[in-house]
Every structure is written in C-alpha cells, then in structure tokens.
Amino acid sequence: MLLWLAIILFVAWILGWGVFHVAGGLIHLLLVIALVVFLINFITGRRTV
C-alpha cells in the first residue's frame, strides 16, 4: 500500500512540476514525506513478537 502511495505521489509530483506550478510545492512536500515514511519503514522492518 505504501508503494502505491509513493507511485501516486510521484505521478502527481511530475504533473505538478510540469503542468500545475502552484500545487507543485505541496505535492513535492508530500512526496518527501512519503519517502521518509518509506525509508523508516524499510529500515525498521516488520517486527515479529
């Protein structure tokens, strides 16, 4: 699910960068946040109890 979110945000960021210059900054910020969450999830991994 996180991968799909990253893909959707990446596509929206590309559209925002090329088409909608006003929303490009917000979409870029959301993309960076999604990347940070993905990296934290990847580094910590799934913990089994």
What does this protein look like?
With 49 residues, the protein is mainly α. The protein has one domain. The chain has two helices and no strands. The protein has helices at 2-18, 24-44. The longest helix has 21 residues, at 24-44. It is elongated and about 40 Å long. The relative contact order is 0.17. The model has no long low-confidence stretch (mean pLDDT 75).
Question: Would you kindly provide a brief summary of this structure?
Answer:
This protein is mostly helical and 49 residues long.
- Calculate the terminal CA-CA distance, rounded to whole Å: 22 Å
Q: What portion of residues belong to β-strands?
A: under 5%
Arithmetic mean of pLDDT: 75
* Major sheet characteristics: none
Order of helix and strand elements from N to C terminus: HH
Roughly what percent helix? over 70%
Provide the structure class.
mainly alpha
Discrete helix count: 2
Radius of gyration: 13 Å
Low-confidence parts, pLDDT < 50 over ≥5 residues?
none
The number of E-state strands comes to 0
Protein topology:
Blueprint: H1 2-18, H2 24-44
Helix pairs in contact: 1-2
State the main characteristics:
single chain; 49 residues; mainly alpha
